C-alpha cells in the first residue's frame, strides 16, 4: 500500500495493484483536444469483457486533410510528421483506459477503450500502424487518432483492448515495434482494394430478400467500400450486419473492364440516422462510410 498526504488530517490510500494496472498517462488533457481536467485514476474497466473477438482496425485511405499541426504539451513542443506510411520505430508501448473513456481524442473522435486505436506524439491523424509485441510476437493493426504518450521513454499509447490483445495490459508496458501502413497498398495486398463508389441505382440481387427489397426502395444509403474481391465484400457485409439492424448488402457494379463489389447499408430514414450510423461504424474501426443515394 502507498499512502500519500491528503486534505486535512486524512490520507489517500492507493493499492499498488491499481497503480500497476493503470497506464500511467500524465494528468493532462491528451493532445490538443480540449475538455475538462480528469482527476480519477486511470486503469482497466471494472467488468470483464473478452476482447479477443474485437477485429483489428481496417486501413482505409483517408479523405480530407490530416491533422499534423505543431502543438505543445507540458512545456514541450512537438512537430508531427506529414506522412506516416514509412514510419518505423522500436520502443516502449503503454495504454490508457477508463480515465479517458468517452472523452474526445486529439482528432476530435470519442475515445473507446475497446476500440483498436492508439495515441502517438508525431504521426499524422488519422493514420494506421502495425504494432508488434517483441516479447511474444503478437501483432495488431490500430488507427492512430490521438496524441500521447507524454512520457519520454514511450513511443505509443494503445487502447485497453489493444494492450490486452498484445498481452501486456496487466504489466502496463511492453517493448514493441511500430510500423506505418499505407492503406492503399495494404488493401491491394489483402485483396480489399476500396474504391470511391458511385451513387448509381442498385439493380442487382442482394444476399437475402430483405436486403434486396431495401436496395430497390430508394432513399439514403451508406456505402462502406467497394472491393475487387467478392469475398472481401461479403466479409465486411457480414461483420457490419452483426452490428446493426439496418440491412447491409453487396451490390456489384461494372467499372471499365472490372467488377467492383459495393457494400452498402440502408435505406435510411434521415440524415440524422445516417450520421449516427457513420459515427458508430467509424468508432468500430470499419472505415469512413460515404452517404449516397440510390437515385
What is this structure's SSE topology?
Blueprint (H helix, E strand, L loop, with lengths): L1 E4 L5 E4 L1 H6 L49 E3 L2 E3 L9 E9 L20 E3 L7 E7 L5 E8 L7 E6 H7 L7 E8 L1 H7 L19 H9 L2 E8 L2 H12 L6 E8 L2 E11 L2 H13 L6 E4 L2
Parallel strand pairs: 5-9, 6-8
Antiparallel strand pairs: 1-2, 3-4, 5-10, 6-9, 7-8, 7-10, 11-13, 11-14, 12-13
GO biological process, one term: cell wall organization
Function: Lytic transglycosylase with a strong preference for naked glycan strands that lack stem peptides.
Main location: membrane
Highlighted features:
alpha+beta; disordered N terminus; Alpha-Beta Plaits; four-stranded antiparallel beta sheet; Barwin-like endoglucanases; 295 residues; lyase; 6 helices
Order of helices and strands: EEHEEEEEEEHEHHEHEEHE
N- to C-terminal distance:
66 Å
CATH architecture of the domain at 71-191: Beta Barrel
Give start-end ranges of low-pLDDT stretches.
1-29, 31-39, 192-218
Tally of alpha and pi helices: 6
Query: Can you tell me the CATH superfamily of the domain at 71-191?
Result: RlpA-like domain
The counted number of beta strands is 14
Query: How would you characterize the largest beta sheet?
Result: 6 strands, mixed, barrel
The first-level CATH class name of the domain at 71-191? Mainly Beta
- What's the arrangement of strands in the largest beta sheet? 5-9-6-8-7-10
| Percentage of residues in helical conformation | 10-25%
Rg from alpha-carbon coordinates: 21 Å
CATH topology of the domain at 71-191: Barwin-like endoglucanases
What is the global morphology?
Answer: globular
Proportion of strand residues = 25-35%
